[in-house]
């Protein structure tokens, strides 16, 4: 039993949640800089799903009082050397980060890239490689150039595909000797739930929002296929994967109708990986599209491109499982990302996400059975409020317990035949939450001194989990 040699242990981040420097060195505005998902009175309520309008964007751009936490991040832009040195000290084999598209193409549709933006990532990748850390780079992580959103309504427009392909080709060419692991769209399935953050879709620019979101998904599939082909052509020794927010939904009971509901839940989730890995639209979506009066506009050649541009491996985030039920009367009492009934066998995080390590093994088997491609867990972890003791120490044993339980299930899955490439827990250094914009929802091994309003010294310090994870990596998962 154990993890294979070369297993990619590391940690994960995203530009819009940790770089800061939001308009520095020529970077343009992004959807993330204008999305204000501030904490609500009830912290278990998820507000990311609220659609944004042109007026909301104008308001956000005019607002200068610093209430948009994603703009200040944790200042990785200026502290990357210190942060990467800490990752190296933990023994990271890989570091997942994203390139901010509007740092490279400020409005999204320029013909020439912003050299200062390219230079920043050169320095970051060089710093990683200095320590033997392989960068794992997401091309688009919840951050779309605002210029393209306002001009074309984001990914709803077919024109966006060419702009994305140009951006992808520029970064592949520039970093071909430095980056060998790539991901196309972070949590691509989120576009079916909310169009703004990853898709640049403004609700007032369409009279059928769901149609716009699924049309955008089609365009992202094409963009993904083009990026896969370009990556293979430009960096033949690279591997490029998709990225799905995996939602494992158990049937509530052994009632066959509940089992069917869990199959339907899988359909809305696995639709995206089915297209990106199998290379064609699954037939089960026809009924869904009909029910919601969605008609995907395709052009000649689209189906062929999808077949040619399938990914090399599947990556996904895994935080929780949920319940699928045919009993629509029941209450949604778990504060899971999308709301679900509460599973009585599971505990929840402070934000109501139901903690389910065995569910990770269930999912690993399900995905590997379905696709037979290598899997990569590129996000997992516990968002929690940490307490800094008088002497500066942080005893996050709850985080260690969470990870240990998940790593044990990964080891079992590998023993049971699953091909797993690596594990990059989310927010290896504390950063801004995607769903609530809070700083106090922390995931890191490294603490960052900053509060929800952006006050603090930004000093980095090690939590107890830092030494623990270092040992896990040093023993390749044998001593957890
Ligand atoms: C995923 C996103 C990340 C991230 C993480 C944790 O959905 O890809 O960007 O932030 O979830 O979620 P949150 O920050 O809302 O706790």
List keywords for this structure.
13% strand, binds 6-O-phosphono-beta-D-galactopyranose, 480 residues, eight-stranded parallel β-barrel, globular, TIM Barrel, two-stranded parallel ribbon, 40% helix, 14 strands, alpha/beta
Summarize the structure.
The chain is an alpha/beta fold and 480 residues long. The chain has helices at 15-18, 31-34, 54-62, 69-72, 76-90, 101-104, 115-130, 146-152, 159-175, 196-199, 209-234, 256-278, 285-291, 302-308, 357-371, 397-415, 464-474; strands at 8-12, 94-98, 134-140, 181-185, 239-245, 248-251, 313-317, 321-324, 347-348, 354-355, 375-379, 420-423, 446-448, 460-462.
Describe what this molecule looks like in 3D:
An eight-stranded parallel β-barrel has the order 1-2-3-4-5-7-11-12, surrounded by five helices. A two-stranded parallel sheet has the order 6-8. The chain has a two-stranded antiparallel sheet with strand order 9-10. Helix 5 packs parallel to helix 7 (115-130). The chain has 17 helices and 14 strands. With 480 residues, it is of the alpha/beta class. It is globular, with a radius of gyration of 21 Å. The site of 6-O-phosphono-beta-D-galactopyranose has 15 residues, from loops.
């Amino acid at each position: 039993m154990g993890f294979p040699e070369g297993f990619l242990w590391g940690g994960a981040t995203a530009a819009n949640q940790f770089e800061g420097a939001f308009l520095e060195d020529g970077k343009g505005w992004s959807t993330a800089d204008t999305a204000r998902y501030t904490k609500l009175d009830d912290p278990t309520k998820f507000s990311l799903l609220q659609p944004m309008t042109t007026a909301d964007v104008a308001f956000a751009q005019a607002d200068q009082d610093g209430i948009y936490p994603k703009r200040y991040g944790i200042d990785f832009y200026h502290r990357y050397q210190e942060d990467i040195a800490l990752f190296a000290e933990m023994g990271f084999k890989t570091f997942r980060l994203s390139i901010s598209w509007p740092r490279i193409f400020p409005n999204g549709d320029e013909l020439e890239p912003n050299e200062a933006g390219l230079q920043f990532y050169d320095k970051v990748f060089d710093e990683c490689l200095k320590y033997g850390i392989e960068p794992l780079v997401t091309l688009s992580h919840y951050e779309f150039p605002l210029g393209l959103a306002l001009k074309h309504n984001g990914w709803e427009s077919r024109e966006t595909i060419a702009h994305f392909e140009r951006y992808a080709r520029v970064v592949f060419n520039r970093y071909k000797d430095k980056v060998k692991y790539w991901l196309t769209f972070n949590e691509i399935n989120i576009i079916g739930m909310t169009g703004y953050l990853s898709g640049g879709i403004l609700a007032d620019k369409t009279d059928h929002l769901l149609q716009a979101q699924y049309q955008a998904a089609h365009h992202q599939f094409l963009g993904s296929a083009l990026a896969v082909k370009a990556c293979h052509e430009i960096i033949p020794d690279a591997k490029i994967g998709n990225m799905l927010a995996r939602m494992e939904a158990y049937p509530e009971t052994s009632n066959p109708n509940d089992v069917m509901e869990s199959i339907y839940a899988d359909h809305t989730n696995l639709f995206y990986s089915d297209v990106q890995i199998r290379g064609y639209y699954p037939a089960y979506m026809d009924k869904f599209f009909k029910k919601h009066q969605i008609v995907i506009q395709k052009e000649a050649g689209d189906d062929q491109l999808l077949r040619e541009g399938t990914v090399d491996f599947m990556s996904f985030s895994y935080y929780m499982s949920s319940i699928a039920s045919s009993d629509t009367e029941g209450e949604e009492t778990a504060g899971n990302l999308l709301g679900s009934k509460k599973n009585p066998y599971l505990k929840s995080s402070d934000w109501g996400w139901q903690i389910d390590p065995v569910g990770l093994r269930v999912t690993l088997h399900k995905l590997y059975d379905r696709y037979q491609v290598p899997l990569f867990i590129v996000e997992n972890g516990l968002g929690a409020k940490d307490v800094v003791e008088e002497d500066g120490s942080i005893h996050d044993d709850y985080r260690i317990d969470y990870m240990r339980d998940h790593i044990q299930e990964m080891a079992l899955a590998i023993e049971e035949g699953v091909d797993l490439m690596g594990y990059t827990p989310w927010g290896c250094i504390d950063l801004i939450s995607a769903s609530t914009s809070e700083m106090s929802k922390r995931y890191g091994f490294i603490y960052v001194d900053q509060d929800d309003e952006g006050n603090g010294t930004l000093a980095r310090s090690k939590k107890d989990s830092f030494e623990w994870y270092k040992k896990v990596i040093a023993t390749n998962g044998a001593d957890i």
